[in-house]
Amino acid sequence: MRFDVVTLFPELVETVVKCGVTGRAAERGLIALRQWNPRDYAADVHRTVDDRPYGGGPGMVMKGDCLLQAIRDARQENPGKVVYLSPQGTPLNQALVSELAGERGIILLCGRYEGIDERVVKLEVDMECSIGDYVLSGGELAAMVLIDALTRLLPGALGHHESAVQDSFFDGLLDCPHYTRPEILEGMEVPTVLKSGNHAEIARWRKKQALGKTWRRRPELLQARQLTDSERVLLDE
Ligand code: ADE
């Protein structure tokens, strides 16, 4: 999957292809990252990319002209959707990540300062996306979150020990608890069923834990998802 990122801080976004799952995916050619810095498109000697907001008020706004040129150059190389990362966007969840993972590429537009000139959104943005109800200093960390979440879903990105099928949210639920050796840690034992070797019982226990945790912590997730009959039995027992 091809990621083209329009950002004033390419060195920050670059780290995503340097480590971990995304780093390995880049090495294997499963993902490719190219960055477009609006500052390279600034026409004046100071390479200005921001200006004061019309109507007054604090802060600065990213200028439209250099952003438009950067996005349009990126579009020449990437036919994918332009996603603008902003707190005003559609909240990101695993369902949206899965939908976007079907694309061959995606252009990620990162704002800084108070935001970007709204006309850029009108002209070039296909989708606005938020990673949560809090404000970051810019869209770069959000873009990296999206790149990471998308990469995990690409065939071959995870080793068989890290299957995405077992991730939290894959089936719309929070994840079950996990344990590793030693069997007793500071007096606390690993649940017996996990040592039983009975795979059907282990799967049942994990599902019950996931359902219970989701019901206690995030009941709205269960409302958004139909429970199967067997899940209802597990939750009720
Ligand atoms: N840019 C600043 N805050 C953001 C957020 N919460 N989500 C996505 N992009 C952002």
From TrEMBL:
Top enzyme category: transferase
InterPro entries: Alpha/beta_knot_MTases, tRNA_m1G_MeTrfase_C_sf, tRNA_m1G_MeTrfase_TrmD, tRNA_m1G_MTases_N, tRNA_MeTrfase_TRMD/TRM10
Keywords annotated in UniProt: Cytoplasm, Methyltransferase, S-adenosyl-L-methionine, Transferase, tRNA processing
Its EC number(s): 2.1.1.228
Coiled coil: none
GO cellular component terms given for this protein: cytosol
Catalytic reactions on record: guanosine(37) in tRNA + S-adenosyl-L-methionine = N(1)-methylguanosine(37) in tRNA + S-adenosyl-L-homocysteine + H(+)
Broad class of where this protein is predominantly found: cytoplasm
BP GO terms, sorted: tRNA N1-guanine methylation
Any one GO MF annotation of this record: tRNA (guanine(37)-N1)-methyltransferase activity
Pfam families, per database record: tRNA_m1G_MT
Binding-site positions, S-adenosyl-L-methionine: 111, 131-136
Superkingdom to which the source organism belongs: Bacteria
Annotated ranges, domain tRNA methyltransferase TRMD/TRM10-type: 1-223
Location of this chain's protein in the cell: Cytoplasm
Subunit description: Homodimer.
Similarity field: Belongs to the RNA methyltransferase TrmD family.
Function: Specifically methylates guanosine-37 in various tRNAs.
Cross-referenced PANTHER family: TRNA (GUANINE-N(1)-)-METHYLTRANSFERASE (PTHR46417:SF1)
Protein's name according to its UniProt entry: tRNA (guanine-N(1)-)-methyltransferase
Biological source species: Thiothrix nivea (strain ATCC 35100 / DSM 5205 / JP2)
Gene: trmD
